[in-house]
Predict the 3D structure of the following.
Amino acid sequence: MLNGRDVIYCYDGSFDGLMSCVFESYLKKEIPSEIITGEQEQLTLSEVRYIETNIKRSERVMRGIKNKISDNALLFIKQAFLTFVPQRDMLILDFIRKGLKFGRKAEFMLTDDTVDALRKAVYHCTHEAHLLEGFIRFSDHGGFLSAVISPKNKVLPLIGDHFTDRLGGENFFIYDKTHRMAFVYIDHRGEIMENIDFELPPPDECEQSFRELWRDFYNAIEIPERRNPRCRMNNMPKRFWENMTEMERDNGNILLDLPQSDENDKID
């Protein structure tokens, strides 16, 4: 395969679009110097080639991954696509190339920089999704449950089924304001929507009373003598607090009842 140092691939940001980039790389026998989305396009001296999303080509690449590597490798790649690891798309391309060359053995090449970076990123993503399954707080707006999250990774595809099982009889949505995505569940059908901007309306009197009850319960079960702010940050990272009802005061500000020296600690 030729080196495509002077070629940058640009695609629409979808998973099928990335798989179309992989197909293009093999079709043209080149390795792009970078893979970017339209939002990342910037001035460059290199040639920028726009890769149109082609579902048939994407499906061919996915079939090749399943047949020549494994079903688990395809799942791993889909999870890696949800992460925010730097140069994510180039890492995925490199992993696929290694997998098509070495087969399933590529999944276990733990000393390889590409495999190591993607495995760490996928772990961070799935771990964040697991935490959010417990930390998401829903509000009632006219019989419709809603929640806002600010994750680092695109976790909605990983947590949608969890809340569908738990809230299957309700209409609800979860808005990811970091990535401008939402998981919407209406009439027993769930769908992920992208490129949307949304802001929750202020809580009505009934919702506000429930929030106050929840905060009272949260404070009532605390044992002051065993208060350990650092332990709480380890189990409930501060970056989740802004969207958690029990961490709000009545004026909507975030509750940060920590020693001054610990307030800026990043324990995540």
Remarks:
- Residues 256-268 have pLDDT under 50 and may be disordered.
- The longest helix spans residues 113-135.
